[in-house]
Design goal:
Elements (H helix, E strand, L loop, with lengths): L8 H7 L8 H6 L4 H4 L3 H11 L7 E6 L5 H12 L4 E6 H4 L7 H18 L6 H15 L3 H5 L4 H7 L5 H13 L3 H12 L2 H19 L7 E6 L6 H10 L1 H5 L4 E6 L10 H5 L4 E3 L5 E2 L8 E2 L1 H14 L2 H4 L3 H11 L3 H17 L7 H18 L5 H10 L6 H8 L3 E4 L5 E4 L1 H4 L2 H14 L1
Parallel strand pairs: 1-4, 1-5, 2-3, 3-4
Antiparallel strand pairs: 6-7, 8-9
Helix pairs in contact: 1-20, 4-5, 7-11, 7-13, 17-19, 19-20, 20-21, 22-25
Amino acid sequence: MEDFRAKTLKEAFRLCDVNPLSGQGLERYYVDLAPVRKTEAIEGVNTVLDFQEPGEFCTILFTGHRGCGKSTELQRIRRQWEKDFWVIYLEANEETDTNDAEYTDFYLIVIKQIEYALRQRGLRFDARLQKSVEDWFKEITREDERSVETSVSVDAEASLGAEAPFLAKLMVKLLAQIKGADKQKTVIRQTLQRDISRLKADVNLLLLDAYKKIKPLYPKGFLIIFDNLDRVPPRVGDHLFFDYAAQLRELNCTMIYTVPISVLCSPKNIANTFGTDPHIVSMVNIYQLERQRCDLNYTTEGLTQLAKIIQRRVDIDLLFESDEQVLDLVKASGGHVRQLMQMVRSACQTASTRQHSKIQPEDVEYAVKQQQFNFERFVPDTHYPLLARVCLTKNITKDEAGQLMLFNTSVLEYNGLDRWNYPNPAVRQSQLFQTALEEVMSHDA
């Protein structure tokens, strides 16, 4: 069997990239973490898609901390279902401004992507339906062929292709403006929202027309995966997934939205607004839960399984002084996959800079310290007493501060038969946290 593991520090640095696995990387380096996540999020999504009959559509919410491995799992879901669904995988941050996203943005993205997908297969929307939709857009946006042609960039024109209809070019122009100046963004969104019922009806008519055309090849229709929506700030997530849940779930195709984990800690109840429970990819559980203790012991199973992520990519014997350094990195990650990869890369870089042939204990210590310093730079001082409380209670407050701590990963969520929270190790080792913990414990005594 061919060995694809890194043999040099440079190779290890490159292979421990924080980007999600895809293509050959999925086959070579994927490690199934489901047994130590203690959740069935991925299996749950697959079950929903399996139970869905042709002509039925549903909305699936997929959540977890940024960097926990959601995108890699979505790539596996994409691959598993591409024979039953026409899968369109999108990175939301490439399509719109995730710091200020609106539900109408997704309608435009869906039109653009479905039209392009059909055209790639030599298919088209029904001509009369497409003209009706184009005429409505021309009326409300006051755009026409000439205004669109003169403003679509050369790169966009090339990616669209020579046969792109007016509708496709208009979607590209509007989405470019939404990602651009604030004034243009506001005007476009307000224009669309004035007749949102018509916009939604047109999008759904286009989706049904597209479904009829692809049904012989893909009986379950389109599966659109909106990844990286977990990057939207808590206030935007609250606005999108609570105020406009109906608009996001009433489209005639199957949708998977990656929602920010912060929405789980809202009293508005995400399951109630969407009518479905979110599928949660929690942290890899490396701890033995004891609610009475702040300083938890580790589980051998969790440490061993998470260490496989490094072992699958790196020749440990060649590049680490001992297995102990690998375990130190795993413990310092708190079960957070991206944080683990970041520290491995940092250790590789530090070892190479210091002209070490292998990663030494001091290289690992430096990498762990850099994570600590990073958190100290952005965690507000007012959060440390709250973080100490989380450490003692294993639970997070259901308010704005709690949502922010989940969003910035200063607090991590663990799941399974027992749901609980725990501060990130990078936070717990900080003197600011230790001082706050002593004060909270002294106050409670």
